[in-house]
Amino acid sequence: MGAAQSLAAGTAPLRLVLAEDSLLLREGLVRLFDEAGFDCVAAYGDADGLLADVDRLRPDIAVLDVRMPPTFRDEGVRAALELRRRLPGVGILLLSQYVEATYAHELLAAGDGGLGYLLKDRVASLDELQDAVLRIHAGGTVLDPQVVRELLGRRTDPLERLTPRERDVLGLMAEGRTNVSIASRLVIGVGAVEKNVTAIFQKLGLDDSGTDHRRVLAVLAFLRH
Q1: Does the N-terminal peptide bond of residue 13 adopt cis geometry, omega within 30 degrees of 0?
Q2: What stretch of H or E contains 16?
Q3: What residues pair up with 7 in beta bridges, in sequence order?
Q4: Disulfide engineering: 18 pairs with which of 43, 64, 177, 197, CB 3.0-4.6 Å?
Q5: CA 223/CA 221 separation, integer angstroms
Q6: What order do you get walking across the sheet with 15-19 strand by strand?
């Protein structure tokens, strides 16, 4: 029995919206979801288009790429978080080419189920895709095993990776000091402070998303320790 035929008879198909910047992949996904027995009511090349229409469309599931225009950083995750705020009942499926553990952790920490993160190249069959969508709609969490491994790897204390000097700098950042003030306190150059701050961001996995204040996030990580 095929994927579409395995859906419960007589039930209305789940309504999906899709955001994927690659035209070929977007059209291919629309056909795949249709063949799997779902109703892809709209497909967009960016997250903004999806967010503009989602209140009107009221989908059951939103399928989003992680990196989309204009910055190709985390637009899909930002859109997913906004969707969760506006329409808490909408299931979220992230489809990405890469494991973005920082973004996956952020979305999982903000929700309570109805979430999925799959790698595009590792979806092996139509039945697997259909099963993932149905589980998300039922409130489950569906993660690619590679995503799970990355998330488990992040459970170790990231502050352990910091050098003693970087810990000193982060501690002074937590006091609200500027780079100039930190340099004066530690009797080092401002350039050295900036290099330590950059290293702290990298070791804590704080990518420059263009929206989050990495200095604040670094301090929060320090305070949680």
Answers
A1: no
A2: strand 15-19
A3: none
A4: 43
A5: 6
A6: 39-44, 15-19, 61-65, 91-96, 115-119, 141-143
